[in-house]
Amino acid sequence: MHELLTPKSGEKHLLLGNEAIVRGALEGNVRFVAAYPGTPSSEIIDRFYQIGPDAGVYVEYSVNEKISVETAGAAAVSGVRSLCSMKHVGLNVAADAFMTLAYVGVKAGMVMVVADDPSLHSSQNEQDNRYYAKMGNVPMLEPTTPEEARKMTLEALKISETFQIPCMLRTTTRVNHCRGPVTLGDLPTDAPSGEFKKDPFNLVVIPMVGRKLRLALLEKVAKLQEEADRSPFNFTEGQGKWGIITSGVSYLYVKDAVRDLGIEDKVKILKLGFTFPHPKGLIRNFLEGLDKLLVVEELEPFLEEAVRMTAQEAGLPVEVAGKGAQLIPRAFELDAVKVKRALQSFFGVSYEPPQVFAVPQLPMRPPNLCPGCPHRATYYSVKKVFGEDAIYPSDIGCYTLGVLPPLKMADFLICMGSGVSSSGGFSKVLDQPVVSFIGDSTFFHSGITGLVNAVSHDHRFLLVIMDNGTTAMTGHQPHPGIELTPQGKITPKVSLENLVRGCGVERVFTVNPLQVQKTQDVLQNLRESMKEPGVSVLISKSPCPLYENRMLHKKTKVVFQVDASSCDLCKRCLTELGCPAFVWERSASGQECIRINESLCSGCSVCSQICKSIKPKRVGEGKGGNE
Amino acid sequence: MTQAKEAFKAMRIFFTGVGGQGTLLATRLVGEAALEEGLSVAMSEIHGMAQRGGVVESSVVVGDVFSPTIPDGEADILMAFEPLEAVRALPKCNPKTMVISSTIPLVPFTVATGQSTYPDVEELRKMTEEKVGRLLWVDAMALAKQAGSDRASNIVMVGILAGTGCLPISKQSWQGALKKILPGRILEVNRKAFELGFKAGEESGK
Ligand code: SF4
Ligand code: SF4
C-alpha cells in the first residue's frame, strides 16, 4: 500500500510538502483532482495519479491550468470536494477562470494550490502570487512546514466550503520540496456523490448576475476578514518592544535569526498563516505598544503594504520597515543569514556574519539534453538546413536547454505557447526565415490557439513540434497524444497530425529526427515551400529515451565508438552535435583524441550518421539504458 | 563513538552531487534515520533541471534548528559526491566544517568538449583541506564496487557519515532507515555498502 494511504492516524511519516498536501486533501475527502504539472508543484498531481484508483479519487492531468480550474470548479459546484494545483506561472494561464469562479463560488470545498518559486530554481520569472488572492478576493493560507501544509489543506477545504468560495493554498519551493515529519490524521470512508442544482441566476455570469455576485463577493471578503483575525494559523510569540511580522518559510529563518542573535527577550513575532484577507484587527493589536516593526517576507512587500496601511489607519506611531536597502531583499529566497543581517541593521544589534570562502573559477556544470535525446537531433538538422540567421523562437520544456552551446537554438521565449504566437509576429516584420520549436505537451497546453491564429492570418513560418510522447521536463507525465504506457503501445487519443491538419495547415510532414538525412531532406523541401505564405508544420517524432526505457524496459544493445585510426579530429561531433557522451581528451604528451563514454551512450546512432569514424559496437546484456 | 543524544544540539548537513548520483536518496536516508532516532529533522531538495547532468543540492538539518536550508558559511558537514562539487560548495562551509568527499571526478560536459579543463584532483583536495576543519577524502566508488554495485557510492558515503559518529543516531536506526527506503531487491547490496562506509568512517577517527 502507498505510504500516503496509511489508514492509521497518529503515525509520523517524513513527507515532502507536496505529499503532505496530498495527505491533507485525502483526509479532507477530496474526490476530484485536476492539474497540469509544473515544478515545484508536480508531485501533488503525480502522487494523486499513483494512488487515485485505490483512494477512490478521480485524477486528471488537464491539458493546461485554466482547464484544471474549470473542471475542478465544476466538481466543487456539484458538491464534490476538489483540488487543483499549479506552479505560479500556471495561475497566469488559469487567471481568467480563477477571477470569475471566485464570483460564482462553490458548494463543496475547493482548494487551489499555487506554488511560487523564489530564486527561480526552475521557472522563467519570480512572481508573487499572493497578489492574485488579493485581486481575486479569494482567501489564502500560506504554510511553513509539511505538517502545516497538511493541516492547512484541511482548513482550506473547510473555509472554502463555509464561505462557498475557492481557497488558495500558496506555497513556495521550500515548502513544496521540504521534507519533514507529518503526523497523519484519519482518512474518511464515505464518498459523497455529486449533485447539481440548476441556478442560472447565480451560476451564469451574464452582466446582471455578475454585478450581483460582485457585491456578494465583497461581503464574503468582509466576513473572511473576521475569520482571518480569529484563525489559529495566525499567532504571536515572545515579548518585547520590537516586532516582526512574517509568513511561510520566512518564519523559520526569523526563529533561527532571533535565537542566534540572542534577542529572544526583546522581540515579539506575529506569524501569519491566513494571509488574505489580511487579519487587520490582529495586526493592529500587534502593532500597539511596539517601537519598531520589521516585516520579513520573500518577494514582494505584500504583508508590508497591509501593515503600513493598518498602522496609518489606526494612527499608530510605530516605525515600519521591510523591503529596502540593508533590509529584506526583494529578489530571491531569504535565508537565516540574510534575516540576521536585516535584524542587525534595523534593530541595531551586533552580529558577525560568517566569512564566506572564495572559490576559484571552476568549470561550469549546466544541465544538458540527455545523451540520445531526439531534441538534439532535431536541432542539429534544422540548424544544418536553416543556418545561423533564421530566427528560432522556442518554448518551455526539456528542449529549452537547446539554448546552450553548441546548439544555441533558442532566440526568444516568454511563456508556455509563446513560441508559436511570437513566430507569427516575427514573420510579419522580419525578412529572415522563422522556425519555431514547441514540445508535444506544450503544444496541447497552449500552442494550438497560436497555430490557429497563425493559419488564419497567413503567418509565414515553420513550426517544429518536437513530439517525444510525454511531458519530460516535469517528470514524464502523460498528455492527450501519448503512445507509450506501462502496458505497452497504444493508439493516442488525440492525433497530433490530424489536429494540425484540422487547424488548416496544409504543409504537414512527420519525420523521425534520429534519421538525419531523411529529416534534412524534408526540411530542405519545407524551406523551399516557405517562399509561399502560410504556416508549415514539421512533427519531429521520437520518444524520450528515458521515458521509453521506463515504460518498455528497453535495453541498450548497441553503443557507438570513435575509431581513433580514422578520426581526423575535426571535432564536429562536439562543436555541432554536442552529445554529452562525447569526451575530448589530451594526453600528457599533448596528443588529442575523442572518445564516447560507453556508459552514457544510449545508442541513438545520430553521431554515426554525421561522421564516418563513429561505428556501432554490440554490448552484452544488462546495460539498462541511460536512466 | 556515536554522539550522546543529550549533549547534541544541532547539525546542518549540506549535500552536493551531480544528477543521477543518488544525492536525494542519500539525503533522505539521513533524514529517515534521524526520524527513526526521534530527533527533529527537516530536509530541503531542489528538483528540476538537475537530472539532466546538472548540480544537485540538498540539505538536512537535525536537532534544534528551524530553517530547512543552510546559508553560506553555516554548514556543519558537507557531503560531496564529486570532488569538483566539493570545492564549488565551499562557500557553504566555515573553518569548523567537516567535509566528506568522494574522490572520483565526473567530468562536466563543458570539460568533455574542451571548453574548460578539470582541475587536478590533488589540487581540489588541498583547496578543501586548507579551509575546513576536517576532510575525509574517500574513494567511495571502490567501496561501492566491493559491496557489489558501483551505483551504491551514495550509500557508502552515508555509511561514512554514520561511522564518524558525529550524529547521535544508533546503528539500529540507520539500519531501520535503510530498510525503509530501499526496495527489497537492492537492499542487500546497499546494506553492504553502508557497512563498508561505516567501517571507513569509524577508522577515520582513530
Ligand atoms: S528527459 Fe527525455 S526529452 Fe528531456 S532531455 Fe532527456 S531525453 Fe530529452
Ligand atoms: S549514439 Fe552518438 S549521439 Fe547517440 S547517444 Fe551515443 S554518442 Fe550520443
TrEMBL record, chain A:
Heterodimer of the IorA and IorB subunits. This is Indolepyruvate oxidoreductase subunit IorA. One of its GO terms (biological process) is small molecule metabolic process. It comes from Desulforhabdus amnigena. Residues 558-589, 592-622 form the 4Fe-4S ferredoxin-type domain. It holds the Pfam family TPP_enzyme_C. GO terms for molecular function: 4 iron, 4 sulfur cluster binding; indolepyruvate ferredoxin oxidoreductase activity; metal ion binding; thiamine pyrophosphate binding. It is an enzyme of class 1 (oxidoreductase). Its cofactor is [4Fe-4S] cluster.
UniProtKB/TrEMBL annotation, chain B:
The keyword Oxidoreductase applies. GO terms for molecular function: oxidoreductase activity, acting on the aldehyde or oxo group of donors. The keyword Oxidoreductase applies. Keywords: Oxidoreductase. Residues 19-198 form the Pyruvate/ketoisovalerate oxidoreductase catalytic domain. InterPro entries: IorB_Oxidoreductase (IPR052198), Pyrv/ketoisovalerate_OxRed_cat (IPR019752), Pyrv_flavodox_OxRed_cen (IPR002869). This is Indolepyruvate oxidoreductase.
